[in-house]
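# step 3/5: fold
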Amino acid sequence: MYILINIWHLGYRGVTASYEIYNFLKTPVKLSLSANLLNVSKKDNLKEGSELKSKQATDNFTGDISFTNVNFAYEETDVIKDISFTIPNGTSTALVGSSGSGKSTIAHLLAGFYPIKNGTIRVGEKILSEKTVDEIQNLISAVWQDSHIFFGTAYQNILIGKPDATKEEVIEAAKKARIHDFISSLPDGYNTVLGERGAKFSGGERQRIAIARAFLRNSPILIFDEATSSLDRQSEMEIQKSFSELCKGKTVLIIAHRLATIQKAEQICIIDNGKIEDTGTHEDLSSKSESYRKLMGEQILKQKNKKEAL
């Protein structure tokens, strides 16, 4: 009788939850991931030799990225406040700041995940809006802090970057991301099933899968969001090498805490409480910005000592 009561109770909870799930599924989505990226059939698109043609970024994109007086709020709480900056074509801009300052939110806005409250985000000649979000997202590749690994094989997970890629292209992307040798060492190689969220891979290996997707997609705009923040030193060095190669010829928005990633950017913006506090190169900010020295503190000191030792 006790077991029967528990089963009835669980079933009743499921019925109650189904109403909320139904309401959630009916809610219209604005400025979210494009349908082209989400409506990927495992049967048709995640296999070798797929005939589906994905919408890929144009090779001749030459525009700048600009945020002009951009404001954004989560419900009633202002998170991004009157942000304005430009990333010139073919250059990299790094966002630095304390946790919760708004760095990742800025990246999410560029990726078209949320509608802005007011202001404009311009990518080349296009202003980001519901009408242009699909086209702009086709220009962007992203390596997020917690890149999602889907249930499926290593091959299928890389193929997400470009569903109509050939096997040779997938393997070449894996080599550039420095994950090919590891995948090849697995019992089933590229056919190894990774499990939900890549349970069989370490954090560094999952990030290299995400970088392989970006190599395969080969978009002119790259977002790199804290992708080495929780990795060991060896994994970070390997990903840094892949990242440097991936950035060549691209317009890049970087979010990172590691000085090795930040100081190579042509422009660094210090974000504090949703606002841009200061902008400059690593050398400029190291000399004039107390906030930057505080954020980078120990890392700048170690670099200085290393140079003096040489």
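# step 4/5: annotate
The radius of gyration is 22 Å.
# step 5/5: archive (pending)
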